[in-house]
Amino acid sequence: MTGKTASDPDPQRAQRADAQRNRARILDAARTVVDEQGTQASLRDIARRAGVGMGTFYRHFPTRDALLQTLLCQGFDRLSVKADSLAAAAAPEEALMEWLRDFTAGSTAYRGLAASMMTTLSDESSPLHASCLAMREAGARLLKRAQDAGRIRADVDGTDLFALVNAVSWIAEQAPSVAARREHLFSLVMDGLTRRP
Amino acid sequence: MTGKTASDPDPQRAQRADAQRNRARILDAARTVVDEQGTQASLRDIARRAGVGMGTFYRHFPTRDALLQTLLCQGFDRLSVKADSLAAAAAPEEALMEWLRDFTAGSTAYRGLAASMMTTLSDESSPLHASCLAMREAGARLLKRAQDAGRIRADVDGTDLFALVNAVSWIAEQAPSVAARREHLFSLVMDGLTRRP
DNA sequence: ACCTGAACACCGTTCAAGT
DNA sequence: ACCTGAACACCGTTCAAGT
C-alpha cells in the first residue's frame, strides 16, 4: 500500500484535461477519415483534421494498429459475445449463418478492413491480435457445432472459414461490378461448405 | 505513300541504341524488384537498380501499368490461347480445372498480382485491360462449356469465377498459415461450384 | 531524341524545443 | 506531462537543363 487514498483517481487512467480532449479529437477525426479512406488512411490527415501535432498523435497512438484497435475492438468483442449467445439460442446451421451475416456486415464497414484483420491475426504484437483471434475462435465454435450436426463439411476449420469470408469481403472492395455480386459470391462459397442431404 | 523506302526501319520501332539498352535494363531490374517486392514495388528502386534516371524510367514506362504490361501481358495471352486449345482437346470439366490450375500458378507468381488484375479489369485505360479481359473471357468460355455439360452450377458467370479464384490467391498472400492451405481453399471453392450427381 | 537529377508534394516516424 | 512543428528518409511524378 502507498499513500494513495480512495479519493485519488486511478493513476493508470489519470490524464491531463488537454490530453483527454486531444485523444477524443483524434478518435473523432480517425472515424471520419478511416470512413473516407479506409484502414490505410493517412495518419497525417487524421492528425490535421484533429487539429493536433504529429507528436501528439503518436503519443496517443504509437502505431496505426493502436488507433484501429479503439475503432474496431468493440465490434470484435461484440461478435465474440454474439457467437456464444447464438450457440445457446439457435439451431447449429442457422446460428452460424446468422453470425457470418453479422460478421460480413462488420468487415465491410471500412475499406481495407479484411486485409487489416488478416495482418493483425498473424502479428502477435498487434494490440488487435487478441480480440480478433478471440472473435475467430468464437466463430470456429459455431462452425464446429454445425459440423457436429452434420450440416457443414468436416474438412473445414475456423482458419479456412475466416479466410474464405475475408477473401470474399476483400474481392468485393476491388471493383464495383464485384461489389454488386458480393452476396452471391458469399452464398456460392457457403453453399460449397454446406453438406447437402 | 511518303518517301520512305523498304530499307528504312519501321519508324514506330526505330529507337536510338542507348534508348533500347535502357529499356532492356529497366525491364531486367523490374523483373528482379517485382519478384522481391510484388507488383507495388518501388519504381525508384527499379530505376536505381537499372542505373537510370527517373526521367528515363518515365519516358519508357509512363505508368506502373505500362511496366507491368510488358511483364504480364505474355502470360495473359498464353492463358487465353491455352483456354481455347483446352476447349478443343479436353473434357469440359477437366479442361476448366486444368486451366484454373495454370491460371492460379500464374497469379501467384508475383505478390499483389491478384489485386493488380482486379484493378486493371475495371480500368479501361490500363494497357493491361484488354489482354486481362480477353483472358477472363477465354476462361468464361471454358466455364460455359462445363456448365452446358451439367458439371458446374448454372448461376455462376466468368466474373464470379475470376473473382473467387483471385480472392483465394489474394488471401493466400496475407498470412503464411493461409498460404499453406491455399490448395485446400481452392478446392473448397471449386467443389462448391461443381454440380454433384 | 534521349538522358539526368533536382524539385515538388506527399508519406510515416522521430525528436529537440517549448509550456 | 504534454504539446508543437520541423527534420529525416522515403515515395511517385514532373521538368528544366544538358548531350
TrEMBL record, chains A, B:
Residues 1-21 are annotated as: Disordered. The keyword DNA-binding applies. It comes from Microtetraspora glauca. Keywords: DNA-binding, Transcription, Transcription regulation. Pfam families: TetR_C_43, TetR_N. The keyword Phosphoprotein does not apply. PROSITE patterns: HTH_TETR_2. Residues 10-21 have a biased composition (Basic and acidic residues). Residues 20-79 form the HTH tetR-type domain. This is Helix-turn-helix domain-containing protein. Signal peptide: none annotated. Residues 42-61 bind DNA.
